[in-house]
Design a protein that fits this description.
The chain is of the alpha+beta class. The chain contains 10 helices and 25 strands.
């Protein structure tokens, strides 16, 4: 045998040994893929980053820099953050938004993070989409008129919701001493704060003679109207709630409230590791296009493996630090880190779980464009399938399956 042939055979043998070793390692528990994924399979030299980088950004998303060996495939980017969205600032407050234009993974809803200072007014307006909102700080007064001419005026605080159907005119005003901050979710992925029907816009673009005839007053009464929309402006703080209600009472009373105290409700699931509170059309009856849950996960807790069969899940991270893995066909599995102000999308029916990786509670708002919340819990499913069938899938003792949680607990302790 010549030297070239011998060298080739030795090289092939070595390559085969490396491949076999890699395949054996890849088949090991917690590292299932070939070629093997993850930093555990690499070397310091290969993992180094001598090129340009931003440590501040990298440190926000460590699982992107060093994903678990179980991550696989190429998933769309399911992460974004209000922290990187530009603010639109005016005299009475500010807002920043995230539509499908800024976050393409969000195909069902869009979001706006808004602040109104004490007395700050989000001017009288209406939308082409339904407006669902969660108060995160302070207090706010809502005024609204329904299609039957019935007014609704209410003050809301942190943890409260409101829902305004499409086309219903309304306003928002921050109350003292701290004003308010809230998250708005529109049931249209492209609804933008720059695409709102504003009352000042309409009047400024209507001839004075038409305004006078419409309202039964001299056209000169409108000589000082703003010629540019107000959007958010500094106003005077309103008087007592009862006085505003009395002033608009002539139209009658709405049959169902347009606000809801979400964080004051009894949890639908609660363990020592956390709780889940729910609002959908069964409890918050006017909210016919948006269902929502607030998930509170204590340090070390795990939001159990589950999926939602009827809608994408749009998440807003209110506080804490955590990590979520999303599983899809392919296989695809992507792990992402989150902190306050971040947003995520989990497409419909894709499996996922959340881990609290910090030292304080994680609180996540989960939004679904649907009337009613639905969830399938993995442990609940496996304990309601024949034990021998499940045991054959995982090569485990059927007796162990009997120890799986057989009701959807929602959040498991560490």
């Amino acid at each position: 045998m010549d030297q070239l042939s011998r060298r080739s055979l030795l090289a092939l043998g070595a390559a085969g040994s490396v491949l076999a070793a890699a395949q054996a390692q890849a088949a090991s528990f917690g590292n299932p893929d070939a070629p093997p994924q993850g930093a555990i399979n690499s070397t310091p030299g290969a993992l180094s980053e001598p090129g340009p980088r931003s440590p501040a950004l990298q440190d926000q998303l460590p699982s992107f820099q060093n994903p678990p060996a179980t991550d696989v495939g190429n998933s769309p980017l399911l992460w974004s953050s209000f922290n990187i969205m530009p603010k639109r600032v005016q005299g009475g407050g500010w807002a920043r938004q995230m539509t499908a234009a800024e976050f393409p993974a969000s195909r069902a809803v869009s979001g706006v993070n808004m602040r109104l200072g004490p007395g700050g007014i989000r001017e009288l307006h209406w939308h082409l989409a339904g407006e669902w909102a969660l108060m995160t700080n302070g207090r706010c007064r809502i005024t609204m008129l329904d299609a039957e001419g019935r007014a609704y005026v209410e003050d809301v605080g942190a943890g409260d919701l409101w829902f305004i159907p499409p086309g219903f005119p309304h306003s928002l005003q921050g109350l003292g001493p701290d004003g308010c901050e809230f998250l708005i979710v529109f049931d249209d992925a492209f609804q933008s704060e720059f695409n709102t029907l504003l009352v000042t816009d309409w009047l400024a673009h209507t001839p004075p003679q038409v305004l006078g005839q419409n309202f039964g007053v001299p056209p000169e009464a409108f000589a000082r109207i703003p010629l540019q929309d107000l959007w958010i402006f500094q106003g005077k703080e309103p008087g007592p709630l009862a006085a505003d209600r009395a002033a608009v009472a002539s139209g009658g009373t709405v049959p169902e409230p347009f606000t809801f105290p979400l964080t004051a409700t009894k949890p639908v699931k609660e363990t020592a590791a956390g709780r889940i509170q729910l609002a959908d059309s069964r409890t918050f009856k006017v909210s016919t296009t948006i269902a929502a849950a607030i998930e509170t996960i204590k340090p070390g807790g795990l939001r159990q493996m589950h999926w939602h069969p009827n809608a994408d899940e749009w998440q807003y991270w209110i506080k804490g630090r955590g990590r979520m893995t999303v599983f899809d066909a392919g296989p695809r599995a992507e792990t992402i880190d989150f902190q306050a102000g971040d947003v995520a999308v989990v497409p419909r029916s894709q499996g996922h779980y959340i881990q609290n990786t910090g030292s304080e509670e994680v609180q996540v708002l989960a939004i679904f464009k649907t009337a009613q919340y639905q969830e399938v819990d993995l442990s609940d499913w496996l304990t309601h399938a024949p034990p021998e069938l499940v045991a054959q899938h995982f090569n485990i003792d059927p007796a162990l399956i009997a120890r799986f949680p057989d009701t959807p607990l929602g959040i498991q302790p560490g």
